[in-house]
Amino acid sequence: MEIAPLKERREDIPAMISYYLREATSVLTGQAQERSEYRIEEDAVALLCECDYSGNIRACGFDL
């Protein structure tokens, strides 16, 4: 299966942020979260959407 690089799928970034935020919340609290009570400011989401993502994002420290 071939998936386009993240830099070509920027519209997926907000959903990925939500997913990883829920995952991090469940790891930190020890409970699964349907909806996270935590959020990221819109400016931060916009900044993450503007990043280059020229390589593997796990190499950038985003891997949980």
Keywords:
64 residues, mainly alpha, 2 helices, 41% helix, globular
Description:
With 64 residues, the chain is mainly alpha-helical. It has one domain. The protein is built from 2 helices and no strands. It starts with 12 loop residues before the first helix and ends in a 14-residue tail after the last helix.
Number of domains: 1
Overall SS class: mainly alpha
Percent in helix:
40-55%
User: Mind summarizing the main beta sheet?
Assistant: none
Distance between the termini: 23 Å
Count, helices:
2
Rg measurement, Å? 13 Å
Produce the secondary structure layout:
Layout: H1 13-29, H2 42-50
Structure, briefly:
With 64 residues, this protein is an all-alpha fold.
